[in-house]
Write a structure and sequence with these properties.
The protein has 18 helices and six strands. By secondary structure, it is mainly α. It has four domains: 109 residues, no CATH class; 106 residues, no CATH class; 116 residues, NAD(P)-binding Rossmann-like Domain (Rossmann fold, 3-Layer(aba) Sandwich), CATH 3.40.50; 75 residues. Helix 1 runs antiparallel to helix 2, helix 2 crosses helix 3 and helix 16 packs antiparallel against helix 17. It starts with a helix and ends in a 12-residue tail after the last helix. The C terminus is likely disordered.
C-alpha cells in the first residue's frame, strides 16, 4: 500500500515522463528523422520508427502505465512529423501482422463465460451503444457534407467499439472497474466488431442500392504508372480551366481528384480523371510526378495544398510547382515552402469586375484599365512588403494600413490631375462628364464582353 508521499511521487514521475516524451519528440524527433532520411535507406528509416515506438511503450510500462498508451503517444509524435506519409508507406507491411497479434491477444483475454451467462444483456448493450454512436456519426457525416452514398458505410464502420477500449478496460484496476464488469465490456466491444462485417454485407446488398445512383460507374483509380508532361492535383473549377487550356496545345496531363461527384460529372464531358488522394506519396509516384515537367496544385483546401507541396519539396524537389492560393495567408505559406509560381484564385477576375464597374459609371475604357492596373501593381507591391511580417499580425496590419493610405493618396492626386486636364481640354469636370452608359441598343464593347484579349493579364507576376 503506497503512502501519500509515494503516490505523489509516482504521479509526478508519470507526468514528468509524458512531458519529456512530448517535448523531446517535438524538439529532437524531426532533426533525428531528417538525419535518418538523408541516408536514403528506407530500411533504417522503418527500423528507427519501430524502435521509437517500442522504446516509448517500454518507458510508459516502467512508470506503471500501459504499453499501448506509450505506442499511442509514439504514433501521435510520428503523425505530426513531416515524414508521416513516408512512414505510412514503409510501415504498411507490418500493419496486418501487428493487428493480427493484437486481436489474438484480445481474444485470449475475453471471458466467454460472462457472455454466455448474460446473453440478453450483452445483446442489449451492443445494440444500444452501436445505435447511439451511429446516430452521432451520421450527424457528423451530414455536417461534414459527406457524399450521400458514402454515409451508410461511414456510419457503420465507426459505430463499432474501438480498439483503444480494450486498452482502457484492461488498464483499469479493480478500484475503477470490477473484473466482472471489465470482462463484460471487453466482450461487448469484441462482439460489436464481430457483427460489423455481417452488417456491412447486409448494407451492401439491401441498403446501398437505395443510396447509390443507378448505373453509377466505378471511379477509375491509377493502377499503372503515368508519364504525362503535367500532373494536375485537383480538377475543380480552377484546375479544369488550367487543363482545358493546356490540352489544345498538345500538352499531356494526368489529373487527380478525390471527389466522386466531380469525377463523374467530368467523365460525362469526356475528361479522364483518376480518383485518388494527391497527398499520398505512392499515388504521386504512380501518377508520374518524378518525370513530369510541372505539377499544378489546384486543390481548393489550403491545408491539403500545403501537404502536397511539402511532399513535392521533400521527394521531387526538381519538379516546378504551380500553385493555387486561396488567400494571401495561403500565398505566404506557399512562399515559405519555396514555391515561385503562385496565383491568387480570384485576384484577376476581381480586377476585371472593378474595371467593368468603372466603365459602367462612365469612365473611358483606357482610364478604367489604367486605374485597375495601378491598383494591381500597388497590391502586388503591398503583398511583397507584408510577406516578411505576416507572422506578426500587428506589424502586418500596420504595413497594410500604411500601404493602403499611400495608394489612396496617390489615386487622389491622379484623379485631381485628370479633372484638371478635362477642364483644360474639354471644358468639363467629373461632375459634368457626359453619361456614356451603354443603352440596350448599343451593347458594351469592353474587353470583358467583346472577346478582345484582356490586358489585365499583362505583366503577370506574384
Amino acid at each position: 500500500m503506497l503512502t501519500g508521499t509515494e503516490r505523489a511521487f509516482e504521479a509526478l514521475k508519470i507526468v514528468g515522463v509524458i512531458a519529456a516524451i512530448i517535448l523531446g519528440g517535438r524538439l529532437a524527433l524531426r532533426p533525428l528523422l531528417r538525419w535518418i532520411a538523408n541516408s536514403r535507406t528506407p530500411e533504417i528509416f522503418t527500423a528507427a520508427s519501430l524502435l521509437l515506438v517500442v522504446a516509448i511503450a517500454a518507458l510508459m510500462q516502467w512508470v506503471g502505465l500501459s504499453m499501448a498508451l506509450g505506442a499511442f503517444l509514439a504514433g501521435v509524435l510520428l503523425a505530426e512529423s513531416e515524414y508521416r506519409r513516408e512512414l505510412e508507406t514503409d510501415i504498411e507491411p507490418f500493419k496486418g501482422l501487428l493487428l493480427g497479434l493484437f486481436f489474438i491477444a484480445v481474444g485470449m483475454s475475453i471471458d466467454f463465460g460472462v457472455l454466455l451467462a448474460q446473453p440478453l444483456r450483452m445483446i442489449a448493450v451492443v445494440v444500444g451503444f452501436m445505435i447511439m454512436k451511429g446516430l452521432v456519426i451520421h450527424g457528423l457525416a451530414r455536417t461534414m457534407r459527406l457524399p450521400y452514398q458514402e454515409r451508410p458505410i461511414f456510419t457503420l464502420l465507426l459505430a463499432q467499439g474501438g480498439e483503444f477500449a480494450f486498452v482502457v478496460f484492461q488498464s483499469a484496476g479493480p478500484q475503477v472497474l470490477p473484473p466482472a464488469v471489465s470482462s463484460f465490456l471487453i466482450g461487448a466491444v469484441a462482439l460489436s466488431m464481430l457483427v460489423s462485417p455481417l452488417l456491412l454485407v447486409a448494407i451492401d446488398k439491401w441498403l446501398l442500392p437505395r443510396y447509390s445512383v443507378k448505373g453509377s460507374p466505378r471511379m477509375e483509380e491509377i493502377s499503372e504508372p503515368q508519364s504525362a508532361n503535367v500532373v494536375i492535383c485537383g480538377f475543380g473549377r480552377y484546375g479544369q480551366i488550367v487543363g482545358r487550356a493546356l490540352v489544345p496545345q498538345g500538352v499531356s496531363i494526368t489529373v487527380l481528384d478525390h471527389d466522386p461527384d466531380t469525377i463523374e460529372s467530368l467523365r460525362q464531358f469526356g475528361f479522364r480523371v483518376f480518383y485518388g488522394d494527391a497527398t499520398r506519396l505512392d499515388l504521386l509516384r504512380i501518377a508520374g510526378v518524378a518525370s513530369a515537367r510541372a505539377v499544378v496544385v489546384a486543390v481548393d483546401d489550403a491545408d491539403q495544398s500545403l501537404e502536397i507541396v511539402d511532399l513535392m519539396r521533400e521527394h521531387f524537389p526538381h519538379v516546378p510547382i504551380v500553385a493555387r492560393a486561396r488567400n494571401v495567408g495561403h500565398l505566404f505559406q506557399l512562399r515559405d515552402r519555396g514555391v515561385q509560381h503562385i496565383e491568387r484564385e480570384v485576384f484577376e477576375s476581381s480586377l476585371r469586375s472593378a474595371r467593368s464597374v468603372l466603365e459602367a459609371l462612365g469612365w473611358p475604357a483606357a482610364e478604367a484599365r489604367e486605374a485597375t492596373m495601378a491598383f494591381r501593381r500597388a497590391n502586388l507591391q503591398l503583398t511583397d512588403e507584408m510577406y516578411p511580417t505576416y507572422q506578426d499580425r500587428n506589424k502586418m496590419i500596420a504595413t497594410a494600413k500604411e500601404g493602403r493610405r499611400q495608394f489612396e493618396e496617390q489615386m487622389t492626386r491622379e484623379r485631381e490631375q485628370r479633372r484638371a486636364q478635362r477642364q483644360v481640354t474639354f471644358g468639363w469636370d467629373d461632375d459634368t462628364v457626359p453619361d456614356t452608359t451603354p443603352t440596350p441598343s448599343s451593347p458594351p464593347t469592353s474587353s470583358a464582353s467583346s472577346g478582345k484579349p484582356d490586358s489585365t493579364a499583362d505583366d503577370r507576376r506574384m
